[in-house]
Design a protein that fits this description.
The protein has helices at residues 8-24, 33-67, 74-95, 103-106, 111-143, 156-182. It is mostly helical and 188 residues long. The protein has one domain (30-99, 107-182). Helix 2 (33-67) runs antiparallel to helix 3 (74-95). The chain is flat. It starts with 7 loop residues before the first helix and ends in a 6-residue tail after the last helix.
């Protein structure tokens, strides 16, 4: 005799609870101490950048509606911080292996082929971001000295995120490629 199937509401509640537990797990659990420190620093930087963007946007919007004026430089700063926030998030996603990928077909390959494909994919990603950093250096050389309209700071401060983030992504992808090739007993 088979066990009765759970009620749909009970199953939905169990799935929701499992999802919550998974989301609340420490994403760096089991990593070496140096990896945890690097990830925590990147995470803290991301939180500071996001908090700054949200605070500036909120204060500017509140001032518009409450006192009929706005902070003239707010949009300039927010637009300048977004590339930094994106690159910090990208770096952390690479390090935590949460980049979008399609595992359906990948997991059907034999382990040696998966390992080779993982090394190839991570290495190619490093090459792409090295190119991004290289092109961004050219952009900075051409336009990095231009001043922003309201604050008068060099635009290169904001655009440098593409160089710094590109180099950080190269390092993160190269490390992932090395780790994928290093562990023959584990699936990448």
């Amino acid at each position: 005799m088979t066990a009765p199937s759970p009620e749909p509401e009970d199953l939905a509640a169990r799935v929701a609870a499992a999802g919550r537990r998974q989301e609340l797990l420490d994403p760096d659990l089991g990593l070496p101490r140096v990896d945890v420190i690097v990830n925590r620093v990147a995470e803290a930087l991301g939180v500071v950048l996001l908090a700054a963007v949200v605070l500036i946007v909120f204060v500017n919007a509140a001032m518009r509606y409450l006192v009929d004026t706005s902070i003239i430089w707010a949009e300039e700063v927010v637009l300048g911080l977004i590339p930094w926030l994106a690159m910090v998030g990208l770096f952390l996603a690479i390090r935590r292996r949460t980049m979008i990928r399609i595992d359906y077909f990948f997991n059907r390959f034999p382990a040696p082929l998966r390992r080779a494909l993982a090394v190839l994919g991570q290495s190619w990603s490093a090459v792409v971001f090295a190119y991004l950093a290289w092109v961004s250096i050219g952009y900075l050389n051409l336009f990095g000295g231009d001043r922003t309209p309201y604050l008068g700071v060099p635009k290169g401060i904001f655009a440098a995120a593409l160089v710094v983030g590109g180099v950080a992504a190269v390092a993160a992808f190269a490390l992932e490629a090395w780790r994928a090739g290093e562990r023959p007993g584990k699936s990448p």
